[in-house]
Design a protein that fits this description.
The structure is a homodimer. Helices cover about 45% and strands about 10% of the residues of chain A. The first copy, chain A, has about 200 residues and is an alpha/beta fold. Chain A has 2 domains: about 5-55, Helicase, Ruva Protein, domain 3 (Orthogonal Bundle); about 75-170, 3-Layer(aba) Sandwich (Dna Topoisomerase Vi A Subunit, Chain: A, domain 2). A 4-stranded parallel beta sheet of chain A has the order 4-3-5-6. In chain A, strands 1-2 form a two-stranded antiparallel ribbon. In chain A, helix 1 crosses helix 2 and helix 2 packs across helix 3. The termini of chain A are far apart. The interface between A and B is large, with 52 and 53 residues. Chains A, B: Belongs to the RecR family. Chains A, B: This is Recombination protein RecR. Chains A, B: Pfam families: RecR_C (PF21175), RecR_HhH (PF21176), RecR_ZnF (PF02132), Toprim_4 (PF13662).
């Protein structure tokens, strides 16, 4: 890709490494930014510098914010004894968009994976057990992805919490709202059938 | 999207406006950047500032570079009397990757469009006619996209050059290398058939 000058090529290569972008879309994005550089490129660079300075992970739950303790952990209102365990900050944001959960979160930062050599101490599992012991928690809701690694991690956490007073629950599995049976995989359909309830 | 702090939300919104990214992929990209902010976010912001300062459009052809006259226009070697007319800098880069063209370029910066109110003076068409008159050009190759607007623009330019000594050509249309007939649209197949040549 030697057709653009070094500076620009360099920017394209960095953009191409972002999740969701490839070399072609990175080129398009960079050309778009250059065309409107006063309006878009400089403000975007400034916004990135700003976030690079201000962003930090919550020391308590792992959420991304601009303070050492995130807004949710700092809010008295959210301390209702429920902790929702998610893999990733994106999952936390998705839950918050749903506006259905009023407790606090715990972001693991990944899942256990024998293949990638990720053990409990690489995630925030010890910190979760600490919180359960000290924060007056009465329910841990496992909102992990319905993948093999996600479910392995859920089982591991449930095991660690066995023998405590804490209720361990997980998100219901079934047909998504607006979902069409014809487009659902067999696993989802059979899980929804098993968990059927009176109408 | 009030689940992230203002600074981060702001960055996500700006990223989401880039071509090829939407709100969801912008969120993923920003979280990825925050997770590796020393390694990725700060260098990316620096690279953007660098390009915002250094990037400029070639005064002659409209190519994007870091000098007032781009490398291609400045190179004696490329002054072979051929000008390849493209819609966009991305098209110029695509031609350069092909390494098949040894002349200079002219980037229109779009296509004529009655609907969007884009006339010849909004593109670099007057500048093209100037160059043809003064740069010792003997061939203008119209490498415009095979869309309605692209072809309208090609016809308009060809008309403007009528009566001059300059040969006006366009890229051949036909079956792409490695293309399978079954996957080609009818227009391409019939164009390729009309332009068939002895084997």
């Amino acid at each position: 890709m030697s057709e653009a000058p070094r500076d620009i090529e360099n920017l394209i290569e960095m953009m191409a490494k972002l999740p969701g972008l490839g070399p072609r879309s990175a080129r398009r994005a960079v050309l778009h930014l250059i065309r409107k550089r006063a309006l878009l490129l400089t403000p975007l660079a400034d916004a990135m510098h700003q976030v690079a300075i201000s962003a930090r992970e919550c020391l308590n739950c792992g959420n991304v914010g601009v303070t050492d303790i995130c807004e949710i952990c700092a809010s008295e209102k959210r301390g209702n004894g429920q902790i929702c365990v998610v893999e990733d900050v994106a999952d936390l944001w998705a839950m918050e968009r749903g506006k259905a959960f009023a407790g606090r979160y715990h972001v693991l930062g990944g899942t256990l994976s024998a293949l990638d050599n990720v053990g409990p101490e690489d995630l925030r599992i010890p910190r979760l057990l600490d919180r359960v012991a000290t924060e007056g928690v009465n329910e841990v809701i496992l909102a992990l992805n319905a993948t093999v690694d996600g479910q392995t991690t859920a089982h591991y956490i449930a095991e660690q919490l066995e023998g405590t007073e804490v209720a361990v629950t997980s998100l219901a599995q079934g047909v998504p709202i607006g979902g069409e049976l014809d487009y659902l995989d067999d696993g989802t359909i059979s899980a929804a059938l098993k968990a059927r309830k009176s109408f």
